[in-house]
Design goal:
Blueprint (H helix, E strand, L loop, with lengths): L1 H14 L4 H6 L9 E5 L2 E4 L4 E8 L2 E4 L12 H13 L10 E2 L2 E2 L1 H8 L10 H10 L15 E5 L5 E9 L9 E5 L8 E5 L11 E6 L3
Antiparallel strand pairs: 1-2, 2-3, 3-4, 5-6, 7-8, 7-11, 8-9, 9-10
């Protein structure tokens, strides 16, 4: 009788280490069927995968941070996957509202590059706002790194374009290279583009912000 009672308490404690409401609020496992519970120090999802954006610590879910504690420390694995995915989509036709290899728009390209980050399909403006809400935004144009997400605003101040950084700016050597789904009538597909030193794209799109999902 006593042994069975202790076993029950242990199971209750283990299940309580992850509050599902908090997990859902952070978008954890949103693309993997929801939160299952702790998996070692990581966060287990219902489909058996791990969420790289969240970790399990005591009785709460915490955003993963680098050992240095820098606010914009890079998740190198996520960043490399973002670049690799964006490169694989080069030449994909531009399709408004699209988000797969058959056709994609700019925000759809970004969502494919970081499929486990945003909690739902979002426009470029919504993505930038979400990055801000997670404190993963506000990367200056001159500090962009491969895998970062970049956003642009038009002359009316509307955030209307998004892209993935492929190559970082090296002063005096090359411009920052990005991969974006272009709706330009001359090239309506996923292309490589370059930013000017201020992070602007062409003469009509100004740098609105850079994000570095952790």
């Amino acid at each position: 009788m006593q042994r069975g009672f202790l076993w029950a308490i242990t199971i209750i404690y283990s299940c309580a280490c992850i509050p599902n409401a908090e997990a859902a609020g952070r978008g954890c496992c949103s693309y993997h069927g929801g939160v299952a519970g702790c998996a070692g120090e990581g966060l287990g999802c219902n489909d058996g995968s791990l969420s790289p954006g969240c970790s399990c610590s005591g009785s709460s879910i915490q955003s993963q941070q680098s050992a240095s504690g820098l606010p914009h420390a890079s998740n190198r694995e996520r960043a490399q996957k973002a670049v690799d995915k964006a490169v694989s989509l080069l030449g994909t036709p531009y399709v408004s509202g699209g988000s797969d290899s058959q056709g994609t728009d700019c925000s759809g390209l970004v969502q494919q590059a970081v499929p486990d980050y945003f909690p739902r399909r979002m426009t470029a403006a919504e993505q930038l706002n979400y990055l801000k809400s997670q404190d993963d935004e506000d990367v200056p144009a001159n500090e962009l790194k491969p895998g970062d997400l970049v956003y642009f605003q038009d002359n009316q101040g509307k955030v209307s374009h998004a892209a993935v950084v492929e190559k970082a700016n090296l002063p005096g050597e090359r411009a920052t290279g990005i991969i974006a789904a272009s709706s330009n009538k001359n090239h309506q597909y996923v292309v490589r583009q370059k930013l000017d030193p201020r992070g602007s794209l062409g003469g009509k799109l100004r740098y609105a912000g850079g994000g570095r999902p952790r």
